[in-house]
């Protein structure tokens, strides 16, 4: 059975995004808890990226999902990693 959907994207994009590290309580030290937030849109999903030391481009850590994300750093070399996050508005209607 086929189901037809009409998807309409929100015409108001998220205005800004920020990301913070959540303080860890009794977590393994190789896990880094991150939380993204945005303004200008009611609700949003978030992507998370990382750029390793010496790398010229970012690699996606997680495709769109919840604002909270746990980054597992097991096996990564020491150095400074640059993290990024981006929102996608969730105001979508389906029929």
Structure description:
The protein has 95 residues and is mainly β. The chain has a single domain (16-89), classed as Immunoglobulin-like (Sandwich), CATH 2.60.40. 0% of the residues lie in helices and 45% in strands. The protein contains no helices and six strands. Strand 3 and strand 4 form a beta hairpin. It is globular, with a radius of gyration of 16 Å. It starts with 15 loop residues before the first strand and ends in a 6-residue tail after the last strand. The model has no long low-confidence stretch (mean pLDDT 78).
Brief summary of the model shown:
This protein is an all-beta fold and 95 residues long. The protein has strands at 16-21, 31-39, 44-51, 59-65, 68-72, 82-89. A hairpin with a 7-residue loop joins strand 3 (44-51) and strand 4.
């Amino acid at each position: 059975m086929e189901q037809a959907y009409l998807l309409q994207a929100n015409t108001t994009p998220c205005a800004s995004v920020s990301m913070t590290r959540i303080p860890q309580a009794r977590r393994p030290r190789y896990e880094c808890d991150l939380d993204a937030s945005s303004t200008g849109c009611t609700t949003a999903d978030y992507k998370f990226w990382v750029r390793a030391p010496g790398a010229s481009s970012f690699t996606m850590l997680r495709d769109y999902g919840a604002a909270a994300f746990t980054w597992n750093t097991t096996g990564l070399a020491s150095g400074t990693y640059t993290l990024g996050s981006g929102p996608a508005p969730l105001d979508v209607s389906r029929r």
